[in-house]
Amino acid sequence: MEHGHNVYLVIASLAIALMSGFTGLTLTQGASAMGVARRKLLVSMSAVALGGGIWSMHFVAMLGMTLPVTFHYNALVTMMSAFVAILLTGIALLLVHFGERTPKRITFAGLCVAVGILAMHYLGMSGIQGVKPLYSGLGIVVAVVVSLVLCTASFWISYGNRGSRNILFGTLVFGTTVVAVHYIAMAGTHFVKIEGVQSSGLWLSKEVLAFGVTLSSFVISGAFLLVGVTFAASLSKTHLEDSAKQSSAADTDTEAPVSDSQNVIRIPYESDGKTSFVDSNDVVSVQAEGRYTFLYHPTGRLFCPWSISVMETRLAKTSFVKGHRSFLINTDHVTLFERKKDNGVCFFDGTAHLDQAPVSRSYLKEVRKRLGV
Hints:
alpha+beta; 17 strands; 9 helices; 3-stranded antiparallel β-sheet; CATH 2.40.50.1020; 19% strand
């Protein structure tokens, strides 16, 4: 039997995938620096947003599928497909938010989500009653490859650097992946009518399923709006901080500030609900993490409530220099500098839980100037 799709519901399915991706990826921004209990809560909420979005996108698209016969869905299988998607996205988020975020963990997390999308799709399709889906080998292979490649790419974009721009690009890739996998798989699917077969167990008509999908889509849309307001506010705050930093730099001197190791700034860090302070000259490097930063200090990796732009402004007249958009480097602690074509690496003695920090091409000249090389 030939099947088609309602173009308006195709567009709606894409919107659901993008909103759920943005909500899930944004909710956990900065979560790695939070306490375990709060981190668990955010990861759980994000898993529901991402997994629920995958499920909702699939069934919005299925509601828009047209067949010349009546069909319905097995309720248990339909719910199981949602749980599988939430479970696998939850595992992926646990990998990148608990423990060190290594390349292997990011890659494996992306693969987990890819498997979740594929499992959700084909498990959800198996719940159709009244007709039987038949899959082409080519359709399955293409859907699997697209899911694995694009999901891994979306997690590398989103978690390689947890900046706002990366989250937005990661959202686009994630949403595109969910939609592409569904419609590629459907392009390789054909349906045949099953004559004289009685439906077993509890089943859902398209009208009942539409009610459930509308409810889940409403929740996702509401969460998207709430997260979006916070996200927009953080972008505005960052813009104001950058403007203040540029204004301050213009007022002080047109030349690059000369490092002065005698200028010591007291930097706050938070631990166990308390705020303490360390001297800037004891900090080896500062790394951005969303709207916050991490300090590499002999006592450990410390969470600081200042953003990287605030940190750069406060440390402008110290021995710190920006080596990368996510790193400030204390040149007093650099023991070795290595030039690599159009970028470089600063090495430290490792006593502050950090062996090296990258130097990108944009900041290479200033770093070399500070180091005198």
